[in-house]
Amino acid sequence: MKKVLSFDVDQTLNVAKTPIPREIAELLIECIRAGFYICPISGQKFEQFLIQIVNPMKEAGATGEDFARLHLFVAQGTQYYRYEGDGGEYREEDWKKVYDYPLEEAEVKKIFSALETAARELGFWEEKKLKEGDEIIENRLSQVTFSALGQKAGTKEKYAWDPDCKKRERIVARAKELAPEFCFEIGGTTSINAFLPGRNKIFGMEHLMEELKVRKEEILYFGDMTQPGGNDFPVVELGVETITVRSHEDTGYALRGILGVL
Q: Does 89 lie in the same domain as 8?
């Protein structure tokens, strides 16, 4: 019997970098009220989890009691946030960081240098396309994320930039040559996540099991990057039952099936 439904975010629960649709928010609430823990795990930072998942669920009617069963595994699970409200009205300040495993400053600098050098050498450094105030490489404390067009680029532009992942595969290969002590994984539409060895979604899943006191057999995971080299592949390697999706519509279809069986 599954106790946990865990999800990648971009292209699994939503259109990349946008809030989850109302239908998905309502399905997640329904799953919570059916007794599941809901555990998104993504390379994104905490503030994006609030924008893309928490706020849409609140607008769809989620209560403080519902959010107590929503567990946020940020930056591939190297940061974990839990809602510790009293079960009444939802308050954003009731999200508590349970743990965090930040990179050291020297490690961040070396990753920044490797990613920028690789992208520039290969002709994929798109600085001129950035919107005001945006950045290509971002320090997310426990990981560094390369977003080729920045965080503020439009969805259409992001989907068109590297649909077959070939550009990012070349950047990853070169970055690994420049900084072999770090891991580089492809995620989202234009992203590469960089982190210390062992700090991928296996790390997040193992901590999820520890924090929620569940076994991997009790988890069902949804992700769009389950192929070798994708940021969901470590979950497959761990042996967690996984459903590969290509869009939030696929995820919605699967969730309606699960709820229908219940």
A: yes
